[in-house]
Amino acid sequence: xxxxxxWKLAREGWTLDTTVRLLQATAFNPVITLPLFLAAKxxxxxxxxxxxxxxxxxxxxxxLALGVLNSVGRWLDDKVLNNWKSDEWDWKKEVVVVxxxxxxxxxxxxxxxxxxxxxxxxLDVQKLTYEAPPSVQYFHCDLADKxxxxxxxxxxxxxxxxxxxxINNAGCAxxxxxxxxxxxxxxxxxxxxxxxxxxxxxxFLPHMIEKNHGMVVTVASLAGYLTAPSMVDYxxxxxxxLAFHEGLTAExxxxxxxxxxxxxxxxxxxxxxxxxxxxxxxxxxxxxxAEEIVKAVLNGRSAHLVLPESSWGIVPKVRAWPVWxxxxxxxxxxxxxxxxxxxxxxxxxxxxxxxxxPKGVEESAVLVEQH
Length: 371
Description:
Mean pLDDT: 91
Organism: Pseudopithomyces chartarum
Structural class: alpha/beta
Strand content: 5-15%
Radius of gyration: 24 Å
Family: Belongs to the short-chain dehydrogenases/reductases (SDR) family.
Protein name: Short-chain dehydrogenase/reductase 3
Oligomer: single chain
Low-confidence stretches: 360-371
Strand order of the largest sheet: 3-2-1-4-5-6-7
Helix content: 40-55%
Shape: globular
Number of strands: 7
Keywords: Lipid metabolism, Membrane, NADP, Oxidoreductase, Transmembrane, Transmembrane helix
Order of helices and strands: HHHHEHEEHEHEHEHEHHH
Distance between the termini: 39 Å
Largest sheet: 7 strands, parallel
Function: Catalyzes the reduction of all-trans-retinal to all-trans-retinol in the presence of NADPH.
């Protein structure tokens, strides 16, 4: 499954992203508009055409200005995020940890990395749903349990050496309202989607900081910017993951003086995985999300990724809208989770918590069907 060419039509078909990319490559591309502008401005034939088509020439100047602003913005994004410094990566020596790599987006990430011959450690509570490529090793890990994270991290170091890339990909969702959510539901969601990022960073980040070389990838979600009914805990945990990424990026330079340790965040929309089966919304293929993550990893530079790309102009900006528009939008998302039936994976730590609960008379004597 090689990474798809930028010039191929997306798996999702012709989308708004396709149109935006086409416009960026043509109408808003200074490589195209600047020569046209210079020809119109400084050549006799071009000046004649510009005078005859004044409206078209004004549009050309507008396209050039917008294209230059966009290019400068992208350039500044890259330079500032990477502290104006470059680094070298030897992918024959790097070790990548992928959480939740047994299936879904994580599985695609693992295969794309393995195709490059990169050593990959998969940390997951469930066993691999595929035959591991030669450079891939599986380590059982309950990401909701700190002790399990510590044990698995030690096993990775003993087997593969110190990881230089950590991809926090694992996630879980319960799909319940606030009042229907049990304590275990809430704790599991936050443990896997947010707190595990802290505990894994505490395991692998010190060596990256010591060598001033490494990368931490946070797979968050557009839900971290915009929540909806029946997914409040999920959105809250993804907002926490996004804040973790932003804070880590700042701390690496200001507190740890590790200005070459990179950070990448992916905020993707609804993706066609077992976790969100039945979700009512336009969907991405897991391979599409995985490819963007792996391209950022192989590029070896910090990045803030959003998919679909066109959603960057809307979803993260919602909090800047007037309050009545914000609340109206959230209420309008009331049906997103009505048909949701995402897969649930048994967590050993969750089972242990249930056993440890004291049983009252009613609890031990009556079986209640949960809906």
